Amino acid sequence: MKKLSLFLLIVLIPLSCTLFDPPDAQIEEITFDEKILDGYFVVSIAFEDDGTAWLGTLGTYGQGLIRYDTDGTTQVYNSLNSIINDSTTIWDIEVDIHGNVWIGNDGLVCYDGQDFVRYELLNEDTPLNRVMSIASDSEGKVWFASWNRLDGGETIGGVVSFEQEEFNVYTPDNSDLNEHMNFDIEIDLDDNIWLAQFNSLVKFDGSQWTTYGSDDLGFEPFMIREIEINSQNDVIGIIDYSGFSGGMMYPSSGKPTLFSFDGYNAQRVLTDSVYFRSLTIDQNDNIWCPCPYGLRVYEPNKLKLTALADEGRGHFSVKESPSGEIWTGSGDGVYIYQK
User: Fold this and answer.
1) Confidence of residue 160 (pLDDT cuts 50, 70, 90)
2) I need a labelling partner for 262 at 20 to 30 A (CA). Which of 92, 192, 193, 238 fits?
3) Is 1 among the domain residues?
4) Which residues are within 8 A (CB) of 114 and not within 5 positions of it... i.e. 6 or more apart?
5) 95-123 as b/e, with b when 16 or more CB fall inside 10 Å?
6) Could you tell me the pLDDT band of residue 121, with boundaries at 50, 70 and 90?
7) Start-to-end CA span in the chain (Å)
């Protein structure tokens, strides 16, 4: 999770999720069991198979990349002891099937267990100097959504794959990809690539690009901020309307904010005044969404609110650990809930 606008991160911290009027149901009030990394502004989280956590921070605070071992040992990588540029935000982290840790910030960095390696620009049209999202497939190929805005206002970027030390670049100029700007990239159970964009979802099956717009979804998405894939191979996504108001208010009332898409149409849509910045889906397909002052949990079939936690300041990222704990990154550390 990725994909945060620095301006919106800062101005939206004071907002509260109390605008949300939950449906009539018994809602469990959950309490976080533990808090770690006080003072760190954590915006991305990934886990190795053994439970070792990697956490990315907001560049404004110069806090770098954090490795948190299962015994609680913490190692911070920053500009003083590594090639990690701690003045830039770590938008996303991904651990591939080989155990390599991929870091997306102002460039693309890989940690192979011993060393950090930085990959430089591929070409002038598709830079790897702003990697927003990373995903890896079942064969070990790693995919990146990369874009940037030039000084003149032009947006450049596309989708990049990496396999056996070889990059492949897909842009609107050399493929049927419809857009330079892609906010999130995920891979489904059939190794199809899914992209979250302004106004559409895009699927790439390895040869064909398919764009799903408002006619396919059944509603008009303003900005699909982040997506995840559940065990039924459905795409679960959140809609971000904050650009309508410059972040001063959140005009989502009566508009879709959370949806489920089965590849044909949106089966379930949540419409309410609620602000989500990211999501994760646990092993039971429950949907966990951090918001400015806590966490909301939705059951998968009806997108019904089932649990909530109101604690902390500015929650921006969430991930389930291999042991089933829910970690949520905030503007003041990481909160952990043991299911």
Assistant:
1) very high
2) 92
3) no
4) none
5) bbeeebbbbbbbbbbbbeeeeeeebeebe
6) low
7) 21
Q: Which domain holds residue 44?
A: 6-20+29-338
Apex 281 CA angle, 276 and 284, nearest 5:
140
- As a whole number, mean pLDDT of residues 306-335 equals 94
- Helix locations, 20-132, DSSP H: none
Q: Give all strands of the β-sheet with 116-119 in edge-to-edge order.
A: 92-95, 101-104, 108-111, 116-119
Of 266, 277, 278, nearest in space to 219 by CA:
266
Ranges assigned E (strand) in 113-243? 116-119, 131-136, 142-149, 155-163, 166-170, 184-187, 193-197, 200-204, 209-212, 224-229, 235-239
Please report the pLDDT score of residue 17 as a whole number: 36
Q: What pLDDT shows up at residue 12?
A: 39
Measured torsion, CA atoms of residues 96, 337, 60, 244, in degrees rounded to the nearest 10: 90
Beta bridge partners, 288, equal 280, 297
Domain annotation covers residue 48: yes
Residue whose tokens read 């930085």: 118
| Half-sphere CA count of 82, side-chain side, radius 13 A | 22
Question: Exposed, middle or buried, 178 (CB in 10 Å: 0-12/13-18/19+)?
Answer: middle
Confidence of residue 30 (pLDDT cuts 50, 70, 90): very high
Question: Could you tell me the pTM of the whole model?
Answer: 0.90
Question: Is there a domain that residue 139 lies in?
Answer: yes
Q: How far is Cα 316 from Cα 68, in angstroms, rounded to an integer?
A: 18
* CATH number of the domain where residue 220 is located: 2.130.10.10
- In the chain, the number of structural domains is 1
- Which phi and psi angles does 86 have, rounded to 5°? -80, 0
Local structure of 19: helix, strand or coil = helix
Dihedral of the alpha carbons of 154, 178, 89, 47, in degrees to the nearest 10: -170
Tell me the two tokens of residue 313.
């300041």
The torsion angle over the Cα atoms of residues 46, 328, 237 and 250, rounded to 10 degrees, is -140
Half-sphere exposure of 139 (CA within 13 A, CB side): 9
Which tokens sit at 84? Answer: 């990690």
